Amino acid sequence: MKSLRSFLIAALLAAAAVALATTAGAGPTVGDCQECHGDKTMEKSLPDGRTLSLFVDGNLFRESVHGKAECTACHTDATVPHGKLAAVACGRCHPDAQKSYSQSTHGIAHAKGVKDVPGCEDCHGKHDIRKVQDPKARTFRLNIVGVCLKCHEDRVIEEKYGLPDQKVMEAYRNSVHGMASKKSGLLGAAVCPDCHGNHMILPGDQPRSATHRQNIPTLCGKCHSGILEEYELSVHGKGMRAGIAESPVCTDCHGEHTITKITDPRSKVYVMNIPKTCTACHGNEAISTRYALPKKRFSTYMDSFHGVALEYGMTKAANCASCHGFHKILPSSDPASTVNKANLPKTCGKCHPNAGVNFAKGDIHVEVTPEKAMGVFAVRIFYTIFIGVLIILFVLHVGMDLLGRRRRLETKPEEKKE
Amino acid sequence: MSEKSRGPVYVERMSILFRIQHLLLMISLLVLAITGFALMYYENALAQVLIRLEGGVLYRGIIHRSAAVFLMAQLVYHAFYMLISREGKRELKEIWLTRRDFDDFLQAMRYNLGMGNEYPRFGKYGYKEKFQYWGATAGVFLISVTGMILWAETFSMRFLPKFVLDLTLIIHGYQGLLIFVILLFWHLYIVHLHPSVFPMNWAWLTGKVDAEWIREEHPLEYEKLKGEGVL
Question: Looking at residue A178, what DSSP letter applies?
């Protein structure tokens, strides 16, 4: 037994010694590297005449997420001294990120050798990589927008690759998300990767993209989950899930980068802009015909006092959403709909407390045709004819009266003679 | 002495009270027309300018309803005045619509077309004045009723279905147009454009008219005044 124990100890010691010897022999330590790379003036001349600093800030490195590792963990071929090293392959340790990246629009371009496209280090940094939760990290929520915009607000790059222009980026800065992030430092505010993804960024027209139409409600619902729940119950949500391409998703009404608070007059869903936003689809002949939607909703609304009042800035006048709801819009045939006949007294009652069951009789959007609103149509026709005929009679009367007057004046002298 | 060589003699046609009523009526009807048609034809560029001038739809409504209250008050005052006061009773008798006015109207038309030889002889108010007075009164009454229904919309909604309110709104608007047409084509003709008064009958300001005009246009009134010794 004794011999076995002493053998084991000896074996362990030997293994440790071998391990030590291997490490020591395999390459330089951080300290070794810093002997040269700790020198701020260390640089290399590039063929095009520029110089490349070879300085590595040791303190920043030690604070970084990789600070406890040796340089050779990444620069596997480094020796003291060394010539040009092979490119660092982050994917050796981060294979998932590498895989996602390679399928992304950045990764595909990178593989084709496009130089302007970002690799790992352009977003994460090199020796100073920090965890995404670290406020000092480039990829920290409050810093990432600046990292993305470094390229995406570069006019040369935008033009070269046909990217969305600066207006889009500017819109984001002024949006409710951009302002909340930048001005208020809210960590919950959506920043670029929240919607576009991080490693797996794809243009919105590709079905796998996080920002593809089909994925938008789920995407926004990551944060706005209560609203997503309502939306899923709505006619729009059900339509969208059924694959109806025209069925609106969040961004159709709220905008994308331009999203602002609904109290902001620039918002597509600001009270004054709602009728126009809804009409984009509901006034579209093709859409309303294909899905058998009721027509003339906009013109009949605008002809009503609500429409006129809203147009002239009376914001408390009812707009589409006041009656139909917004996220949970249901067709009037649905008993749960706010505009179902049975619910109209309640819906109208929000503003007109006396509106009873009796009031809800008759159309709300009054389309003045004999079939839809005979009464109004008849009264309108009656008055138009009546007033028209009256005007003709008045003019005739004036003519006849003048004629008669002339006759009276002509006959008067005769009377005098008698 | 022939009547022509005499200087013009003026007789009172509108007392000061009627002139004041007329002036107030004119002002309130104009305000109501401007604010009302601006809303009725809100799509029109001029209407949009008017609505902005009136301070937007909210203030337009307040102005319109204030003028309406004023007009209705005048209507009530006028009704009582015509029924109770001595002057009013006399005027009511003069303006009261009778079978004779329709006969006069037909006779006048026949004469105007050369089918009759006798032009009707009118009293203080001929068919032109009477038709206008009663037409406008009925119109103002109808527009007041519909206007009040629309104004008290929260009250109306308790009893009236929406389609009745839709009808009320349409009637209110077209009734306004009707009154406007009467004023434009009928009233403006008889007090402004008619050759006997052109450019206008000054009675609404001075209260007086030329006796000669009365003799020509309202001969029965002329004879009555002569009989009373006024002339």
Answer: H
CATH of the domain at B29: 1.20.950.20
- How do residues B36-66 score in pLDDT, each as one tens digit? 999 999 889 999 999 889 888 889 999 999 9
Residue B140 and residue B71 in contact, taking contact as beta carbons nearer than 8 Å: yes
Q: Say yes or no: B151 contacts chain A, CB-CB below 8 A.
A: no
Tell me which residues of chain A have a pLDDT lower than 70.
1-4, 7-8, 10-26, 412-418
Distance from CA of A103 to the nearest CA of B (A): 55
B87 touches chain A (CB under 8 A): no
Residue B208 DSSP SS3: strand
Task: For residue A48, tell me if it sits in a domain.
Answer: no
Please tell me the distance from the alpha carbon of residue B123 to that of residue B118, in angstroms, as a whole number.
16
Residue by residue, DSSP assigns A190-243 as --HHHHH-SSS---TTSTTSTTSGGGHHHHHHTT-HHHHHHHHHSHHHHHHHTT
How far is residue A157 from each of residues A164, A298, B126, measured CA to CA in Å? 10, 43, 88
pLDDT in tens, A158-184: 899 988 888 888 999 999 999 999 999
ipTM score assigned to the predicted complex: 0.88
With a CB cutoff of 8 Å and minimum separation 6, the contacts of B56 are: A312, A313, A314
Q: Has residue A308 been placed in a domain?
A: yes
Q: How far apart are CA B182 and CA B177, in angstroms?
A: 9
Helix %, strand %, coil % for chain A, to 5?
55, 0, 45
By three-state DSSP, how is residue A40 classified? coil
Range of B42's domain?
11-228
Which residue has 């998932």 as its token pair? A96
| 8 A C-beta contact, residue B204 and residue B191 | yes
Instruction: Count up the domains in chain A and report the number.
Output: 1
Q: How many domains does chain B have?
A: 1
- The answer to whether the Cα torsion of A249, A254, A255, A260 is positive or negative is negative
Residue count of chain A: 418
* N-terminal to C-terminal alpha carbon distance within chain A: 169
Across the interface, of A313, A366, A394, the residue whose CB is closest to B185 is A394
Name B129's Cβ contacts closer than 8 Å, sequence gap at least 6. Answer: B95, B190
Report whether A405 contacts B195 (CB < 8 A).
yes
If you write DSSP's letter for every residue of A27-87 in order, what string do you get?
Answer: ---HHHHHHHHT-TT-EEE-TTS-EEE----HHHHHHSTTTTS-GGGTSTT--SS--SPPP
Can you read off the two tokens belonging to residue A95? 């294979």
Query: Considering only alpha carbons, which residue of chain A is nearest residue B114?
Result: A404
- Assign 3-state DSSP to chain B and report helix, strand, coil percentages, each to 5: 75, 5, 25
The answer to the question of residue B200 being in a domain is: yes
Residue-wise pLDDT tens digits, B193-222:
998 888 899 999 999 999 989 998 999 999
Cis before B195? omega within 30: no
Specify the amino acid at residue A254: H
In the structure encoding, which two tokens stand for residue A84, read together? 């040009």
Tokens coding A36: 């040269």
Q: Does residue B5 sit within a domain?
A: no
pLDDT digits (tens, 9 = 90+) for A242-257: 999 899 999 999 999 9
Main-chain phi, psi angles of A332, to 5 degrees: -60, -20
Write out the residues of chain A at the interface with chain B, using a CB-CB cutoff of 8 A: 305, 308-309, 311-314, 348, 352-356, 358-364, 366, 373, 375-376, 379-380, 383-384, 386-387, 390-391, 394-395, 398, 400-405, 407-408
Domain of residue A297 covers 266-379
Residue B91 lies in a domain: yes
